[in-house]
Structure formats: C-alpha cells, structure tokens
Design brief:
This protein is mostly helical. It is built from 7 helices and no strands. Helix 6 runs antiparallel to helix 7. The longest helix is centred in the last third of the chain and has 29 residues. It starts with a helix and ends in an 8-residue tail after the last helix. The C terminus is likely disordered.
C-alpha cells in the first residue's frame, strides 16, 4: 500500500470520528477534540512527516470547505439527503471532492480512483459504484467548465467566419 493511500485512510478514519461526534453539524468546531484525534491517529498510524502533512492538509481543507463540499454532495447525489448517506461514503466523498476540486495536488483521475479503492475496502458492496458516480459527475462538470474557460480565453470574443 502506498504511503499516500495510508495517509488517505487515516484521514478517512479521522473524518469518520469527527462526523460521528457531530463535528460538522456543530456551529463551533471543537478544536481540542480535533487536536486529540489528530495526535492519536498520527502517532498510531503514520510515521512519515510527509504523510502527516498530507493528511493534515486534506483534513483542514475539508473542514474549511465543509459547507461547499457538502453542497456538491447534495448537488451530485440529489436522491440521497446528506444525513442519509452512510458515514463511510460521506467521508470518502469529502476526501475525493477536496482532492478533486480544491487541492489539485494529484491528477483528478488518481483522486477518484483512490476514493473508489478506499470505498471498496471500507464501504458496502455498492460504495465503490456510488463514489465513482458522484465523483465522476463532478469531474465531468469540472472538465466542461475548464473547456469553456479555455475557449473564452482563446477566442477573445472573436467570431469565427465561415467561408
């Protein structure tokens, strides 16, 4: 197992613990609880400072952007109210979305594949397909927006004349 995957799994464990305790629903985030959970999991499961840094960066990005991430989950999984998505799937989606939309440290397809693999390991029989469907739809929308932006920047408002 790659060290990045292990860092993602530890990130998933930490997010699961936070979500289970109601961290994301609380108006005030419990920083003391967060520090204790991070310290415990990093000490127990991650030895490399590089892995700890990656995991910490991912966790804090998810916490900072949690409302935006959850809105994306609601948008791309409209038939599933967020509180009805399993804790496992919801937190794997948060990791995948954070990497796909906000962090951009790894290629998009790698971020999606990593989330799917974690879902297959920790989720239900259908988790991998569910995660793939949601993240794939987000990826397609991002690709479309990037293509539109590219076209706008390269056409500079000029019309193409046909002969």
């Amino acid at each position: 197992m790659s060290s990045r995957r292990l860092a993602r799994i530890v990130t998933f464990q930490i997010l699961f613990q936070l979500d289970f305790s109601g961290f994301f629903e609380k108006k005030t985030k419990q920083e003391k609880d967060l520090k204790e959970i991070l310290d415990y999991n990093f000490k127990k499961f991650l030895s490399s400072s590089e892995d700890k840094d990656f995991s910490k960066k991912l966790i804090f990005e998810i916490i900072k952007k949690s409302e935006e991430i959850d809105k994306l989950i609601k948008k791309f999984a409209p038939q599933w109210p967020i509180n009805q998505i399993s804790l496992v799937d919801r937190n794997i989606l948060r990791i995948g979305i954070a990497e796909l939309v906000f962090l951009k440290e790894v290629p998009e397809k790698v971020a999606i594949n990593e989330a799917i693999e974690i879902a297959k390991t920790f989720g239900s029989e259908t988790s991998g397909r569910f995660i793939n469907g949601v993240l794939g739809a987000i990826y397609e929308e991002l690709k479309g927006k990037a293509k539109n932006q590219f076209n706008k920047e390269n056409n500079h408002g000029k019309e193409i004349k046909q002969s």
